[in-house]
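Q: Given only this backbone (217 positions), what sequence would you predict?
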């Protein structure tokens, strides 16, 4: 004996079991798209924070050395550079790699949901992001002062991330409107209210109840 819905073998009529086709499985592409969108935003925010912190510390150190408050040859100054530099570099590199991977996954999953994919807002934010990053390597060397160069580079890098995040959020909102699918805001719960209803497990349960009611009536 098998369930008429999912084909699961049953030992007796009305046996409770997890009827696989009785539940509406969430769209895997929508889940992937939502997860990638969140990670683009998170990696982007962390990267912007790292850039801001490194820039502030760099400007503070440069000002201290220039004013004579700190000596470049001092052990404490060199130790600070050796500790802060590699840590900030590793965190920044991790954010960049995570941002690139998440962006690629976001674009692919967006095209699986709609033919236009991220659309004008998504691709526009991505193009402007790459443009500002490229300018961050070109413009600072043309600034006459060190503090100005650091500020320009930080502004361009942070601005690129802001544009990418803005494009991601706008594209995500548009895709939700077009598809009518609610992209999950977080992890799915393992247990839902349907798990407590026996009628949700096996439609045969309802038939057995009706048969018993008819026999008793």
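A: Predicted residues:
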């Amino acid at each position: 004996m098998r369930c008429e819905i999912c084909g699961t073998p049953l030992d007796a009529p009305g046996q409770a079991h997890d009827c696989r086709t009785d539940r509406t499985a969430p769209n895997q592409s929508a889940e992937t798209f939502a997860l990638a969108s969140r990670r683009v935003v998170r990696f982007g925010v962390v990267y912007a924070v790292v850039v801001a912190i490194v820039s502030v510390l760099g400007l503070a150190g440069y000002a201290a050395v220039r004013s004579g408050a700190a000596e470049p040859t001092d052990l404490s100054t060199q130790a600070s550079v050796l500790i802060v530099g590699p840590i900030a570099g590793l965190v920044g590199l991790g954010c960049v790699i995570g941002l690139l991977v998440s962006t690629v996954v976001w674009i692919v999953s967006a095209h699986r949901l709609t033919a236009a994919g991220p659309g004008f807002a998504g691709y526009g934010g991505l193009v402007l992001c790459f443009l500002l990053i490229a300018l961050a390597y070109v413009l600072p060397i043309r600034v006459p002062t060190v503090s100005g160069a650091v500020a320009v580079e930080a502004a361009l890098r942070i601005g690129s991330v802001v544009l990418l995040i803005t494009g991601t959020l706008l594209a995500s909102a548009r895709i939700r409107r077009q598809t009518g699918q609610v992209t999950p805001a977080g992890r799915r719960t393992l247990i839902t209210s349907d798990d407590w209803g026996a009628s949700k497990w096996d439609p045969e349960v309802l038939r057995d109840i009706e048969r018993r009611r008819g026999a008793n009536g």
